[in-house]
Design a protein that fits this description.
Layout: H1 50-54, E1 60-67, E2 71-78, E3 81-88, H2 100-103, H3 111-119, H4 122-145, E4 153-157, E5 160-164, H5 184-203, E6 206-207, E7 216-219, E8 222-225, E9 232-233, H6 240-256, H7 267-277, H8 299-322
This protein binds adenosine-5'-triphosphate and magnesium ion.
Length: 323
């Protein structure tokens, strides 16, 4: 096993995430050879993975899993462990997610960096790249620590994220949710589990931002959430509820084609109400029911309350200055 495997050697920028001191291993992503047929001849090491091979972080590149919109994903061997290496594409090859709503409130180091990013200079673009990659690593570390079923991250080096390879429990790589046969009972079960996952994520302050049947793998023990570079800070983004609702509605739309009863549920609104109230926690029983309060607002009553509060405050200050 490589010596970095259970340590947090990930080189992030001011992530502020406390290092994990106790390693933990999710049963659905146990390290180990999960490949039924490891490629007999190794593939030529792709250029972007060379720095990791040179650093001794990766021993061999076994095969390419796929090339998506945002990244290419490889299966690699690190000592006696098979891992997944996600190689981020350049910003110019990427798609929609550069939108400002995702970037809102993301931490950058200082105003010089913020200005460079706004101007789109070479340095600015590099900063933006790092910020994008770190957002996924940060989210994975935080979510793993919060007990969310995500692949355990190991490190991020030169634009490559090394993480657990999610297996299917039979020696193969886990399929995407979209590619799995679904019965009504299974749809109800997976939907309930994923609602719990989004609650856990929100309790950890994170909204996935692109949750769908394409960004969920079905591991040996059920759904595993992946693909988080666009993850959003729930507390600091003015579009947080809209993004959260979209994630939850994506789950509802997908699963309700197999389990129509889910079509009526309103988990997003219900969960968000608890979140705003400050009472959300992962074990809270949820119903999926929510009554939207669409009564017209009584403006006079609100103004009366505001005036009362102002008067009260003025009186309080008067008494304070008398003391
Ligand atoms: N940890 C992992 N274990 C197993 N397979 C993985 C893992 N991470 C990614 N994959 C595979 O690689 C694919 C692409 O990964 P991901 O969704 O993170 O990247 P992406 O560039 O956003 O791709 P896409 O554009 O298809 O969404 C996933 O659909 C999945 O099949
Ligand atoms: Mg994806």
């Amino acid at each position: 096993m490589p010596d970095w495997f259970n340590a947090t050697t990930y080189n992030t920028l001011d992530s502020g995430i406390p290092a994990l001191t106790t390693p933990f291993i999710h049963p659905w992503s146990l390290p180990g050879p999960v490949l039924r047929n490891p490629a007999p001849t190794l593939m030529k090491t792709p250029k972007r993975l060379l720095p990791l091979v040179e650093e001794g972080l990766v021993d061999e590149v076994l095969s390419q899993l796929m090339s998506g919109k945002e990244a290419s994903v490889f299966i690699v061997r690190c000592a006696d462990v098979i891992c997944c290496a996600k190689v981020y594409k350049d910003a110019k090859q990427r798609s929609f997610r550069k939108s400002t709503s995702y970037q809102e409130n993301r931490k950058v180091r200082n105003s010089r960096q913020a200005r460079a990013m706004e101007k789109g200079s070479r340095y600015g673009r590099k900063m933006q790249e790092e910020e994008w990659q770190n957002a996924e690593v940060d989210a994975l570390f935080r979510l793993s620590a919060a007990g969310v079923t995500v692949p355990r991250p190991h490190l991020c080096h030169e634009g490559v994220l090394l993480m657990d390879l999610v297996g299917d429990g039979e020696g193969g790589v886990a399929p995407r949710l979209n590619d799995v046969e679904m019965s009504e009972a299974l749809a109800l079960d997976y939907h309930a589990r994923l609602i719990k996952e989004v609650v856990r994520m929100l309790c950890a302050g994170i909204i996935h931002g692109d949750l769908s049947e394409y960004n969920i793998l079905v591991g040996e023990h059920g759904p595993v959430v992946i693909d988080l570079p666009q993850a959003v800070d729930a507390a600091g983004n003015s579009m947080a509820f809209e993004m959260f609702k979209r994630d939850v509605i994506n789950l509802r739309s997908y699963f309700s084609t197999f389990a129509p009863a889910l079509g009526e549920t309103m988990y997003a609104e219900e969960i968000w109400a608890y979140y705003e109230e400050g009472t959300l926690h992962p074990d809270l029983p949820l119903t999926g029911q929510f009554t939207v309060d669409d009564r017209p607002v009584d403006v006079d009553a609100v103004l009366e309350q505001v005036e009362l509060a102002i008067e009260e405050e003025a009186l309080r200050q008067m008494f304070q200055s008398d003391e």
